[in-house]
Design goal:
The chain is α/β, with parallel strands linked by helices and 1042 residues long. The chain is built from 25 helices and 42 strands. Helix 21 links the parallel strand 12 and strand 13.
Length: 1042
Amino acid sequence: MVSCLAELGKTYVEKLINRVTAELRFVFCFTCIAKEFEEIKPELEAERKTMEQRVQVAVSEGKVIRANVLHWIKKVDKLIQGNTKTKQTCFFGFCPDCIGRYKRGKELVNMTEEIKSSIEKGEIFEIIDLPQSLPGCGYYSLDYYIQFKGRESKYKELLDVLKDDNNYMTGLQGMGGTGKTTLAIKVGKELEESKQFDHVIDTTVSFTLDIKKIQDDIAGPLGLKLKDCNNSDRPKILRSRLTNGEKILLILDDVWDQDTPLDFDRIGIPKQDNHNGCRVLITTRSKRILDTMNCDKKIELEILSDEDAWIMFKKYAGINDSFSNSLTSKGQKIARECKGLPVAIAVIARSLKGQQHRKHEWDATLKSLKKHVSMPNVDDDVVGIYKCLKFSYDYMKNKKAKELLLLSSVFPEDEIISVEILTRLGIGMGLFGEDYRSYNDTRNEVVVAKNKLIDSCLLLDVIDTENKENVKMHDLVHDAAQWIANKEIWDVNLSIKDQKLLVQKEINIKYLFCKGKGMDLFSCKFECSKLETLIFDIDSEGQECMEVPNSFFENIFKLRVLYFKSTDKVHSLSLPQSIQSLTNIRSLLVEGVDLGDISILGKLPSLETLDLDFCAINELPFEITKLGKFKLLNLDNCVIRRNNPFEVIEKCSSLEELYFKKSFNNFCQEITIPELQKYHIHKGWSRTKYSQSKYVNFCASDASFFSEKTLNYFMRTTEFLQLLEIERGWRNLMPEIVPIDLGMNDLVELHLISISQLQCLIKTIGSQVPNVLSKLVVLRLDMMENLEELFNGSLSFDSLKNLERLSMMECKKFQRFFNCKLNLSNLKTLILEQCPMLVSLFQLMSQNLVQLEKLEITDCEELKNIIDVKREEESREEIDDGDNDNKRHGSIFPKLKVLDIERCHRLESIIPFLSSQDFPVLEAISIKRCDGLKYIFSQYQHVELKSLKQMELFQLPSFIDIFPKCYDSMSLLVNESCSTSRDGFKAQIQLDPIKCNIFSWTYICCRGDKFGSSSTTRIPLVSEDQPQEYSITSVSNSHNLH
């Protein structure tokens, strides 16, 4: 028994000794612990930087970063900020600070373990982004939508029906052009915004059924990628996703009444018995289709009433009270001739907009619409619309716009068409002349014609997720345009035998769009010697190689435009020798095809445009350098197997435009290009807009390709420049790369990321005061380790006069913005993050920032003031007119709406009130974790912040009040005293309740350890005009202002 107790005691004593030893280690081995922490911290910093670089790339590609990755970065940032400092001694220097060492040592051990864990966790983040989802129904802009009185009941009925979970399928029926699609999209947007459905997705079915397109339209907003799935798996995957329990509304637009009903099983749409939250809304012209598809609810959309039709006509024609009675009366008659159809009203009304002084135009319109027109092969229910559309087309005086409308109708109905593709096709067709001045000049003519068609409501403007310009056509406008072309335009599916036979017999085809398998097209024997445009959408499923027979081009020798599209997979297609017989071909566009050897293209003497997108070629052939009319080369996302393509490109003397995206190969060791009017050259994803003529985006891996001469040319001429991790020893951009006198004055956007040696952007000391960056709109600087200032030396006052957005992140040595006066009157957004050495923000500048709307500053530890008050007041005195009774001061930040400050510990106040006119539109203030902050506004005057809606204060341990002295007319009223917090804060009490009109915010929320009372103090905001009290939710451990 005694031995057992002794053994037990021994065990406990050993544990106690081990525990004490471990605890004493924090004191006596503090130096070793600190050393281990300092040794491992650089590893974490390197891992953090690598992760930051990966995040930067992913964000630039438009991807959404996973929440656990962002949480890891925040956690690591806190660990990196940790240090090993502690008090060296206590008891007047006679003893080491044992207690301090113990606490700090224990913290360091824990932090070291956390660092090791974080390094391991950072290494396992193989995927940092979420699968991308395309926007659904909410992406549409419905600014043109009119809430007609006569349709309020239909709108409410459709909304209520779709809210009812008992209705699986709803049908919206109405004749063509009544506005079914617009109503469905409008209701869908409201249901999605109100969270009635998790997703609202629309797709156009149309007469020519395309199952794959419908599947892709539905899959995109759900984050599904069906591109690599075979035809049998696609519906299974889609059905599984649609029935996972989320509430999903599918809008199937423009469903046609055909012999074979729409097969949901082929698409992957669940049926009523197992829909599990997935619901369907179809729009159709046919009443019969509502019965055959067993719709639970059926809603019929009638034509507009005369009253609603006139409201719409007035809006689109711009009719107002200044119009004469006779013209207004005539307008009412024209509106009635549009038969209550929104499509017809929009087109006719727009054609008369701005013609109020030309009465004969209105007379001609009314007469034409009343006149009976024979329309063979046109259904009775669309005759009225066709008549209106035909009149609008005939009335249009812009011939190029008319030609562009017909060209747009070559594509399938409801297809989104790139304006740039239309440009390249239109130039090839000679729609804008045979001998045009330059490619870009002609592109501008296309834009003018496109805008004319949009203004006439004959085309619809569509902006995609990459901000590229696109258009689409209403299905009725599409059909009417093809009818107007009188059989010159054909849109066929060659997989359907009857359609293939018809197109082979037709001799008058000028524009042909066809789809099907390669063998369907290349086995055709065309008789259409008038064919000038051939667009083929290849279904390459199951075809590894496509042979083009020599005889294929025999009867289409007048061809001017050839466009092959293969959007599924890249398959090989060999070009036959007979293609050289196409001596008239001007535009050749190929998408998603392995062409192999393309040297034969050098024998096409009229070729102006060669557009290869997602293609593979053996090499860029030297033969194309002999093409005297060659103006545009697009090699985006291409595989070029051999040789340096730029050795060929630099010898294309007539080339005007080059697009080279993600097509670099290992042979691109030295790059030189000719003088170009437009270029987009980059290796990774970008937000390129075609409106930006010159665009360069490259990083360390591909920057080595460029010679100093080429780099100089790009930086001197480009409009968009992004450089990532370039290591060439640059200390500045000017004058080291670009001479000061050239100024980089074409640059619109400049993004610099991780260029470690750069100390400033421009160095002008010893030079004349230059005018530089005069067109710059966006400046973004990230992770610039040695950047100390933007400009070293003086610049002309208007150098940055167009700058709108300035963003800086992780510029650790950055100290100052400008040391000279500059015109920043257009700056709207300023974002600063992790610039720890920046002391002062604005010096002699604040009066110049008349457009600044958003100011965000985070992690600028040394920042002492945002505005240098002393210098600001001196500056104001200098511009004073000298009359003490009539001093006129400009407002500080007259457009500032959002002020967001976080972790700026040396700030004692944010900004001063120097004039009663300051901050007239300020709406939101958010200040968090600023340890030294005492006041928000450093000076107080009688002012009115009537626009202020929100103020959030969080973890401000030194905070005293909004103003240093504000008892006379302060609007914040505390009707009871608050308990004093542990750090000595005491709330302001009992201010004058009468003068409470300065602030009109919706809420103020002050929270954190600073505000030690857990009780809520109610502070009413009283308006002189209308007293009211705002109720704000209490936060635990908080002091809430209401």
